[in-house]
Amino acid sequence: MTAKSVSLNEYRPRSELVVERKAVTKPKFPVIDMHTHFGPLVLGENYTERYDTAREVERFRAAGIKRVVNLELVWGAELDRLLEKIHPYGDFITTFSSVDVSRLDEPGFETYVLRTLTEAKGKGVRGLKFWKDLSLATRDEIGKYIALDDPRLQVIWAAAAELGLVVLHHVADPVAFFKPVDQYNERYEELSKVPDWSFCRPGLYSFEQLMEQQEAMIRDNPGTTFIIAHGGSYSENLGCVSRWLDEYPNMYIDIAARINEFGRQPYTARRFFERHQDRILFGTDAAAGCAFNYQPYFEFLETWNESFPYSSGEIPGQGRWRIYGIGLDDSVLEKVYYKNAERLGL
Ligand SMILES: [Zn+2]
Is there a domain that residue 3 lies in? Predict the structure, then answer.
């Protein structure tokens, strides 16, 4: 039979592999989801109308989640609005807020940072969230993108350490987002659908520069605890993340939206989770009011299942491959699921 010509966007191969697959609908231990969104960052300015807080708490609990950490770029009155929206579920929803880094060149920036962080802490905030807008979008007064290791940011990391606030950064994005969007790009389908996600533009920091800045920030602020989201920014290269974790005891990572990466290198990933079992935090990037799917996360961490989808869509959103479980031992699983987060006071 001659093959029918099929274009890439029509291609929907169905796996014929037949292997045993253990179902995991509930996690083996209670879970703290370190990486969720209940505010404007993902849901937009009208977020308060987009979900009912009591119903959301119920939905997360039903999935086996005992607490979530809500990561938002809010401060001042916006922080108040967010805390009011999640009230009275502040025990279930731990909030991280931020500071306005675009005020960097204003006189009194240091005072502003100290005041904002002290106020946030007083309102129950447990940590700070920074996003890729720093480094990749926000420019200073001379039009330069603000590097993560910019000495003007030092006041933030120092104040966080002093106030006992942990700092979570979403620094880069997948390496492929920094490469040309062509036939060699492993995230081609995604980038051709959402061209805005490409950072392959002149004038922007390269992925390698961002990683150097990230490392310098962690190295130069040993008293500050940094959680580098999304597998430490570089889950495509766990050897590299492993070296950072070995070198910098103040560095942690979360696994949010990266089981597609961890799960396509199961032998390396399992060794990585074993070695760094005290520094890896569970997270997903789930957002209030939106569909979420914890099952592949639990399946990846708990089972030895082979070649299963990491997402529910017909075409996997983060590359056309399947993942493999790493069957973590209970003692490691407990740390990743909740003990490490609790140790950080989350
Ligand atoms: Zn996120």
Answer: no
